[in-house]
Amino acid sequence: QVQLVESGGGLVQAGGSLRLSCAASGSIFSNIAMAWYRQAPGKQRELVAANGPGGKVYYIDSVKGRFTISRDNAKNTLYLQMNSLKPGDTAIYYCAADSRRIGVYDYWGQGTQVTVSS
After folding, report:
1. Backbone angles phi, psi at 33, to 5 degrees
2. Residue 69: what are its φ and ψ, rounded to 5°?
3. What is the pLDDT averaged over residues 3-19?
């Protein structure tokens, strides 16, 4: 069982920065892949960034060079540093965990709202 709690969302002007955090319960955090997804109004949920237990990372093209995913295994916490934010980044951001290590994210947080004003 993995519980995920996101924090750090808010309202920011275009060009600003936010850092999202995802606190995870359980002892398996360091051994599993974690990711950030987002869902904008009227759109499907999309994978934004992922971080594997070995340190391999993935980003969608639209956030490359602006967002950084990282993890602190000692604190069981996943982060998403978001810089140079754009109105198009406005969405609910979700933390997800692949607890079975099969490439499927089966645990999700409740989400945190990020709103970027122009």
Report:
1. -75, 145
2. -95, 140
3. 97
